Amino acid sequence: MPNIIVIHGPNLHLLGKREPEVYGKLTLDDINARLEALARELGAQLRIEQRNGEGEIVTLIGETMDWADAVVINPAAYTHTSVAIRDAIAATGLPAIEVHLSNIHKREEFRHKSLIAGVAVGQIAGFGCESYLLGLRAACSIYTNSSRS
Amino acid sequence: MPNIIVIHGPNLHLLGKREPEVYGKLTLDDINARLEALARELGAQLRIEQRNGEGEIVTLIGETMDWADAVVINPAAYTHTSVAIRDAIAATGLPAIEVHLSNIHKREEFRHKSLIAGVAVGQIAGFGCESYLLGLRAACSIYTNSSRS
Amino acid sequence: MPNIIVIHGPNLHLLGKREPEVYGKLTLDDINARLEALARELGAQLRIEQRNGEGEIVTLIGETMDWADAVVINPAAYTHTSVAIRDAIAATGLPAIEVHLSNIHKREEFRHKSLIAGVAVGQIAGFGCESYLLGLRAACSIYTNSSRS
Amino acid sequence: MPNIIVIHGPNLHLLGKREPEVYGKLTLDDINARLEALARELGAQLRIEQRNGEGEIVTLIGETMDWADAVVINPAAYTHTSVAIRDAIAATGLPAIEVHLSNIHKREEFRHKSLIAGVAVGQIAGFGCESYLLGLRAACSIYTNSSRS
Amino acid sequence: MPNIIVIHGPNLHLLGKREPEVYGKLTLDDINARLEALARELGAQLRIEQRNGEGEIVTLIGETMDWADAVVINPAAYTHTSVAIRDAIAATGLPAIEVHLSNIHKREEFRHKSLIAGVAVGQIAGFGCESYLLGLRAACSIYTNSSRS
Amino acid sequence: MPNIIVIHGPNLHLLGKREPEVYGKLTLDDINARLEALARELGAQLRIEQRNGEGEIVTLIGETMDWADAVVINPAAYTHTSVAIRDAIAATGLPAIEVHLSNIHKREEFRHKSLIAGVAVGQIAGFGCESYLLGLRAACSIYTNSSRS
Amino acid sequence: MPNIIVIHGPNLHLLGKREPEVYGKLTLDDINARLEALARELGAQLRIEQRNGEGEIVTLIGETMDWADAVVINPAAYTHTSVAIRDAIAATGLPAIEVHLSNIHKREEFRHKSLIAGVAVGQIAGFGCESYLLGLRAACSIYTNSSRS
Amino acid sequence: MPNIIVIHGPNLHLLGKREPEVYGKLTLDDINARLEALARELGAQLRIEQRNGEGEIVTLIGETMDWADAVVINPAAYTHTSVAIRDAIAATGLPAIEVHLSNIHKREEFRHKSLIAGVAVGQIAGFGCESYLLGLRAACSIYTNSSRS
Amino acid sequence: MPNIIVIHGPNLHLLGKREPEVYGKLTLDDINARLEALARELGAQLRIEQRNGEGEIVTLIGETMDWADAVVINPAAYTHTSVAIRDAIAATGLPAIEVHLSNIHKREEFRHKSLIAGVAVGQIAGFGCESYLLGLRAACSIYTNSSRS
Amino acid sequence: MPNIIVIHGPNLHLLGKREPEVYGKLTLDDINARLEALARELGAQLRIEQRNGEGEIVTLIGETMDWADAVVINPAAYTHTSVAIRDAIAATGLPAIEVHLSNIHKREEFRHKSLIAGVAVGQIAGFGCESYLLGLRAACSIYTNSSRS
Amino acid sequence: MPNIIVIHGPNLHLLGKREPEVYGKLTLDDINARLEALARELGAQLRIEQRNGEGEIVTLIGETMDWADAVVINPAAYTHTSVAIRDAIAATGLPAIEVHLSNIHKREEFRHKSLIAGVAVGQIAGFGCESYLLGLRAACSIYTNSSRS
Amino acid sequence: MPNIIVIHGPNLHLLGKREPEVYGKLTLDDINARLEALARELGAQLRIEQRNGEGEIVTLIGETMDWADAVVINPAAYTHTSVAIRDAIAATGLPAIEVHLSNIHKREEFRHKSLIAGVAVGQIAGFGCESYLLGLRAACSIYTNSSRS
After folding, report:
1. Taking the model in full, what pTM does it have?
2. K103-140 pLDDT, tens per residue?
3. What residue ranges do the domains of chain B occupy?
4. CB contact, 8 Å: G23 with chain J?
5. Cross-chain CB nearest to E13 (options I56, I62, I86)
6. How many angstroms from the chain centroid is the CA of residue C100?
């Protein structure tokens, strides 16, 4: 039964209040509830955190590296600007799944490039809340495959 | 019950014989079998095709536009070079889910840019065969949501 | 009386079903009928073909090089990606008129650059169906001028 | 019966004296005569002006905005450098047809980009004097279509 | 009477001690005093905060979104690097006025580009302390106009 | 009591008639009236001119250099293309305030770069007519500070 | 005795009719005859194919991967645009020799970059028909060295 | 005895008043006097003009094309922005010598590129007033050589 | 006897656990012990801090500016992304020595550019723990030279 | 019987000692012996030289221009940086064959561009010692063809 | 009476034999003779050297720095690639005049940029042998002006 | 006891005479004396050489490869332009320490990129003469560590 840390990046605490035409009406609590439900179904243990600070996310990743088997992270704005979070993921050596509510490849040019992708197992973008759920599935699937072999 | 066309792009017929350190040992038949199994579970109807030609994929998309409710496509090499497939997806107006076996954002620079992303609902990359399965789930979820509303 | 091959590139068979806010409601048959009518008026002989494949267009150009006096081509998506069609036009040595339904210079950045322009006599873009008709006039005018001198 | 302002940009008063291998031997008077003849045939009213100054063209466009139904403009060198003429066309809200004697997409790199294209209905380039005539036809066709609807 | 949050970005607490040839001798307290005086004159209510952390500014913007009618922000170094603050401003939907002590367009190349500008009403740069005062006036003027209509 | 020359660049004589969704309904006369009113309040002497030609603006700046204490200029389209106006401002040595009705940093890519900024004291953009009024205040404030010291 | 597949890319069937100042007067049959003669001399078995379609070349490479010991390929226009052919070569794992009639590094800028080179053993360009013959020698030499060790 | 038109571009009428640390204290009249003196020595006939407008320079070049044997031009700011002056020089077919007071290759990046250079015989930059005198010598030398042969 | 603040940037608290093939097995405590030992030998007073947050480093630099004579900083990931730390160093006016465990110029392209270098005395990269020791020596040497003169 | 100068560029005297995983174990003497043997077979006269200095290679090319009928050159590192060797080859007017041991198009980005290619007949890269032998064959073939015609 | 070192860069010893359509038929001896004649007329003392090696030119500049009052240098190919010669000129502190036979700004893109220009007084390009003579005049004029003041 | 070759690149023989505001007043002899003193202290054997020619440095590196245990090199201008020196260092397989008197990352843009860094252990820049001394310490430390293990 894998331990999975889910990290919500900056501004995601405002979800539902924020640009609804881009992200829909769901709040972060809604998403977390769905994640917990699916985790129970898949037999995973979740820790879910939201942080606005780049350094706080770096610290969080370092702190959970001994507990967690995988990271599901929506780096939000830091996707495009943070080498520090990239380095933190590389340092833990944990498999990371990068998720995005919107399809970042369809938005402003500066959102097409992900600094996180270079150290992530994979990326899921564009499915709203569903991106998180698919990410959780992917994380469990990776855990199952690696513990099997 | 949604009709979903799954399109495998160029060279994917060689899967399993091809660069196993990048893509794993699964053959295309293995992937298709898993897709069919999941489709049964999710109550979806699949049509699965593999094409090596850009124009053939364009033709295929045009032909299935009346039958299909969604497209799950791994454009492979054409991800980075085909405006024609992009235009075909835009022309059908069907929701398209772009999937990739490998995390294209970690590979050669020229594979970071997807011409397809601009017209796709979302992108799933880096989970091997699992990318297709997650893509199928996403397609069904989109169908359910849109037919509900 | 000039022989003119009119080539419609990929996805143009979907015309009328496709992004009407960009291209209008005309179907390819409508355009072809208008072309035939104008050809009769101008005393030209037309052969009209639509192809989705880059290689098919290359083959078509090679096949008609002995019959045709000029080429009116809407390369559609291949405008921006095909060196092969460019080389085919250069190889035939026939005057080519490049036409586009929409004004490609106003659309996405990647549609501003035409690989075909470098080997075409001229370019007409942005007038919908009228672009083809103006292109046919241009082709006839070039034929008349060159056979005169 | 549409009123159409035809604007010849900088250096076009030298036509016929200038780089004949690029533009042919026609003078501006020759072109204007052909334009007048075609206008009579198509039932259009023309005003034809040549200006060397960017600001003069801006002023001219502003002055004729109440009289003209469409603009046929060969911005010549200003095609590639003038945001002011672009803004003037946008300000009038009149349909503008951009014409070029030579195929600008085949010439020096800096001539490939048109600042005017972003606000023009369409572009016709590469047919010598014929570019103007096709442009006039396009202008009349646009007028007819819009006054019909 | 509008509520306006004034945000001073990183290093602005060092003002007066810092590169005086670029920014002058005023301290942050001096600027704040002038802002308060002008606010009284214009009938505005101010909250003034300085933060060094990008995440802290994101948090601050989120916290004041219900109280504030407008934001006057000098993002300082984060102007050029922070997508997170940009997203926070977009999320609140409040009008934001971007101010800079120095004319950023005259300094190092990397300071010419503002990530904040894309979501701000306007930008005022180069007038030292006066930039803030003009920004406050702009904020009040926007409030007056929008509450009038 | 400072003498201030206010320069309106190309197409601004069309204000009010022009793209109202971008610039609002105010005419140039409305703006000038507000400028005159504020000038009286601030004790400044104004000269206000509008020019469509780049060279005319260069000439105007040269002519007023002995009379004026500061320049408030909206270079409009020339902001992005005119080295000559930049050089004229540098040549006079007068403080120049660059103003823009719209936030140029939010518009087309080619409007993000100001050639004028490199020689201006500061830039105010995005506040419509208010940009001019803030610019006039800035000009007076600079005059007061420099004549005091 | 090595089995070698020789692949001629798009438009090469027009050789001899095509831009003779660039490629000379030899037809494809002439080249093939010389290749066959040299193959006999070197003790190699040849299969020679020409294809205009990118997908057709991908298919061809896949089909001959079990028979062939090496590939001699002139990708022609696809050299610069085809990721699919690159992937096909990588998938077969066969040594590929890239040949070009002309020195692509001396032609238009867009012909300087080869997408094929990244997966080829080596490249021979600029010697007309001789490029193929040298390529065949190289293929045999590689076969001899690898079967020896 | 050659006829030579000397053209001073925008802002050069302010010479001596303008950025003396870059251009020295000489006025335009000083330079013109030295040019006249050297012309007498070399047996050349001069016409000297200064213009601030791009279009005015275009017109001037067109007007003097029948009289002049060569052009000595300091395009000043238009060096870097004017395609129209470039086209005017090309249209006249007269040898043009491009001169600059300062070494443009040492100044701001945007001054390194000359649009005029592509149609000029040569360029002389960096010697202050002496640049004009050397340019006049070059013009006479070209005239002598071409009339000799 | 100089006071020197040593700043370890983000993720350096994970040292020894992190990508050992790049950074070796030393922990941050090991490095700090060696720094303290060398400081005693060189007669320097150290304060050593590690921070994950960009804003925290900015705050730290501001706080120690009165105590410290020099800064030895390994900005880690912030080397490439932080204008704020750059500005903080510039604001303090203290000599800063930039150190890196690995040779950043040999790693990913985005690590080649240091935003800190523009305000640092010098840079030492690639010698593992030794980079810090050499950096401390450099700091002492600068202190000695400047206090001597 | 052609005279051919073979030039080995910088560091090639270290061959065999140098990065064997890239270039193999052959020494320069081994290569030269094979070249001499093939030259005897083909009836060519060789002069073989190795130089480390760019200027020395320039001088060498100039010195042998009267004796040599062709140049086979491996410019090594100077391939990517030397305009002087390019100019030397252009100056002699001799046909030059550019050879490389490794496939430069597969190595670091900065090795993809050859300054020599623009003046060479052709390029052979990636076949180790065999590149030289193929280059010698190409040189003899060119000599035979040109002396025949 | 100034001492002037004239330096001819790589390949210039081949002048007259080399690309006569670009540089004319003059040999280096012809140019040197004209330079000596003009030097006598202007009262200057010349030392004239030609070098093919970048390092040799660096050494030469260093050696003559005590004797020479100015440098007239045609860096030829090194214009575009040599930081070392640039540094040598900067190190001597002597005024340097950069001359070119051809107008480098009209040739291949890579010849447009001069690394030498950044440390030269001025540049003269495009007048063949005359470029040297004008350069010598400029050098003497600079000497006269500086020794006068 | 390690043998260390210290290489001074082009123009460093002029040190002390050269741009003292950038490099200080020390001569090369001063630096060498300090290096010798420190070498004695650290128990190292030095060979110190200065070369102006790129090829000479390549030759020097090749010659000392059997004697030396490490290279301390200040490539000066060749840092930014020499692939040949890079290849020479790679060929010897010796650890190389790159040193610079000035902080190259703070100077002209073209000095920010080091071609040498890609093959060096590390880089030390900005500490004047001290850069060499720190480099020598680094070289000895590397030698000690590698001979220990």
Report:
1. 0.94
2. 999 999 999 999 999 999 999 999 999 999 999 999 99
3. 3-148
4. no
5. I62
6. 8
